[in-house]
Amino acid sequence: MKILVTGGTGYIGSHTVVELQTQGHDVVILDNLSNSDMKVLDRLEAITGVRAVFYNADIRDKKTLDDIFEKEDIDAVIHFAGLKAVGESVQKPLMYYENNIGGTINLLNSMSEHGCKNIIFSSSATVYGTPAFVPITEECPKGTCTNPYGWTKSMIEQILTDTCFADKEWNVVLLRYFNPIGAHESGTIGENPNGIPNNLMPYVTQVAVGRLKELGIFGDDYDTPDGTGVRDYIHVVDLADGHVKALKKLEPGSGLSIYNLGTGQGYSVLDIVRNFEEATGVKIPYVIKERRAGDIAECYADSSKAFRELGWKAKKGIKEMCADSWRWQKNNPNGYAD
Ligand code: NAD
Ligand code: UD1
Q1: Ligand 2, CB within 6 Å, residue ranges
Q2: Residue 142 above 90 pLDDT?
Q3: For residue 155, which phi and psi values (nearest 5 degrees)?
Q4: What is the largest CA-CA distance in the chain?
Q5: What is the pLDDT of residues 253-281, one digit of tens each?
Q6: How big, in percent rounded to 5, are the helix, strand and coil portions of the chain?
Q7: Rounded to two decimals, what is the model's pTM?
Q8: What distance in angstroms lies between residue 73's CA and the mean position of ligand 2's atoms?
Q9: What stretch of H or E contains 129?
Q10: How far is residue 46's CA from residue 40's CA, in Å, rounded to a whole number?
Q11: Are 125 and 263 in contact (CB under 8 A)?
Q12: CA distance readout (Å), 201 to 46, 198, 207
């Protein structure tokens, strides 16, 4: 298939491009490089041996989207493009709604006008809010998000659901990611956050490489086995493979499909520190801090639906996730910057 990957030079997008190309698909990348680097294209080519077609373009620019759909005969879109910094979304909600929701509506209009009605969307476990139960199945009701970023995911899910209901030619897959970490085994592509990382693993790797002094653990008094927050960490390469497997749910008549992509295994913050230290031999100094606003105690997936319907299952364990995150950071202490 010929796949347009929006946000394809970003963290999850770049890993998905590798899996798509190695599994025989044609890839066209669209990204405005607001949170990624052109160098990713060379690194992707070095891994797969194929240079992806690239458009430096913004999903809010309808005219350019139309030109791309006219020029390229796209079968399906995997839609990663979006802003994702939770704290920034609280400060600048309109920027988030405009970029993520406005951009997605533009994209859907352009797709529809060019007869491409197949899309896989990057959603998040954040749509469950404080989950009604764990492990979380897809039947778990959506909840109240704690920030505008989360609401953009929840609202885009609704927009796609309504679009699919109104026009039976649409096939939509909503993939709800748990906590992606890790990097390609080559150590040449990986997560490259701007500024001080918000998420746990990039914080840990930046402590390990000496860019940050120590990890702050946000709360040790949750109702979890060791008191620290529990999450379902998933290797980004497994996540990428989930997208390729999900393509089969874009066959005519498939309609709307929703899948959790996680491992089903919860790890606490202290588990992550311990596993990272064991996998890499690098010590992570930490201090216990106050709970972070908006955090929940535990969140992990029941991903059995993805196994039943897509034949997808996460294969990589926590040690591999830690070792691969570390290889990327160690080889690229400043990310893609020279
Ligand atoms: P990322 O920031 O590395 O990648 C997103 C890419 O989209 C970037 O390359 C950025 O330049 C591009 N982009 C942003 N706005 C754009 C626009 N208007 N037009 C064109 N390109 C634009 O983030 P990621 O971690 O790879 O996440 C990919 C997607 O998955 C996002 O939609 C994110 O919300 C979602 N997601 C991520 C996580 C996570 O933990 N990383 C979890 C759940 C969902
Ligand atoms: C966060 C976002 C979520 C987003 C996801 C992926 C919040 C409230 N939620 O999820 O919307 O989809 O990232 O981008 O921001 N931790 C520390 N110290 C740190 C960083 C994290 O102790 O420096 C802890 C957290 O309290 C949590 C766990 O590590 O228990 C994981 O945190 P994080 O990586 O930020 O992911 P989530 O909170 O699950």
Answers
A1: 84, 86, 124, 126, 146, 149-150, 179, 198-200, 203, 215-218, 229, 231, 269, 292, 294-295
A2: yes
A3: -70, -40
A4: 56
A5: 999 999 999 999 999 999 999 999 999 99
A6: 40, 20, 40
A7: 0.98
A8: 39
A9: none
A10: 10
A11: no
A12: 26, 9, 10
Mutate to test the pocket of ligand 1, among 16, 61, 105, 122 (most ligand atoms within 8 A of CB): 122
Distance, in Å, from the CA atom of 232 to the CA atom of 263, rounded to the nearest integer, reads 6
Q: Residue 136 C-alpha to ligand 2 middle, in angstroms? A: 17
Please state whether 161 falls in left (phi above 0), alpha (psi between -120 and 50) or beta: alpha
Residue type, 204: V
Rounded to the nearest angstrom, the distance between the alpha carbon of 11 and the centre of ligand 1 is 7
Nearest CA owner, ligand 2 atom 17? 217
CB neighbour class for 93 (10 Å; exposed up to 12, middle 13-18, buried from 19): middle
- Among protein residues, the one with the nearest Cα to ligand 1's atom 41 is 180
| Strands of the sheet with 26-31, listed across from one edge | 53-56, 26-31, 2-6, 76-79, 118-124, 171-177, 256-261
149: annotated active-site residue = yes
